[in-house]
Amino acid sequence: MDYVKPHDIVKGMLSTAELKLNLPVPQLLMRGALAGGFLAVATSLAVVAAVETGLWIVGSLLFPFGLCLAILLGMELLTSSFGLLPCATAAGKSNAAPRRVLANWSWVFLGNLLGSTLYAVLLAIVLTTGGSGDLSAVGSKLITIAEAKTTYYAAHGMAGLLTVFTKAMLCNWMVGLAVVFAYASTSLSGKMLAIWGPTVLFFAQGFEHAVVNMFAIPMGILLGANVSLSAWWFWNQIPVTLGNLVGGMVFTGLAVYYAHGNVTPVHDISIAEAPQKGSIADPKGYPAPF
């Protein structure tokens, strides 16, 4: 069996966080750019599948392969790091001072942005035949998505900001779970299955993911969406990034760390420390609850 128990999952999370915090800037940028590109390709495939079938759920079932590529190839994804790095800080790791964590997030954010927007430019060339052709149904759908992620929220003012922030928080709760759940298996197939489920949950419900939007909104702008750069950042990218931070850090990373990080597993307790059957601490032979 390749199932990894929760307390060992936390050990894996901490080990990965320490490794990420020791990466030099060039590697953070390169890994971040590749991760952004993988999610951008997966997003465009999901849109193609949804347009051709008329079912958004079909695209949602395909999208997780992009996240599998990013995670299992050891790339740097901002939303993943939101869940992992604060755990190292909470555990008191020497290389996890808040300032160092923030620096790491900043470089990964830049890398993700570069990779995502580069793919958007390349895909725009393809979808417009180098700027000389008419838009396909896929191009029109990408424009609609970009406007729905910005001007729709802008039309609702503060309620729109609250909504996009909440959708981002829920999104990275799920994405964070996908990242953490991957540690529950030691096999490639097990890790992919663990990533797939929570990712479908977020994508199918239209929650907001910062790195996906680094592709989706610039893509729409390049194709002619009625979205300004300021609208992209104010009504989506900034609140979504902050919402992803809260969802990944609080709902997943730190929640799992405090649930299992300081718990001594039953099989690690020595016979001398374990309560004996029929003792005062364990009168019925069950493990003592304290």
What does this protein structure show overall?
With 290 residues, the protein is mainly alpha-helical. It has one domain (6-264): Up-down Bundle (Glycerol uptake facilitator protein). The chain is 72% helix and 0% strand. The protein is built from twelve helices and no strands. The two termini are 30 Å apart. Residues 269-290 have low confidence and may be disordered.
How is the CATH topology named? Glycerol uptake facilitator protein
Question: Largest beta sheet, briefly?
Answer: none
Q: What top-tier CATH class fits best? A: Mainly Alpha
Count of individual domains: 1
What Rg do the Cα atoms give?
21 Å
How much of the sequence lies in strands comes to under 5%
The tally of helices reads 12
What structural category characterises the helix and strand content?
mainly alpha
Q: Could you tell me the number of beta strands?
A: 0
Helix content, binned percent: over 70%
SSE run: HHHHHHHHHHHH
Model regions low in confidence, pLDDT < 50 over at least 5 residues: 269-290
Q: Which geometry do the CA atoms define?
A: globular
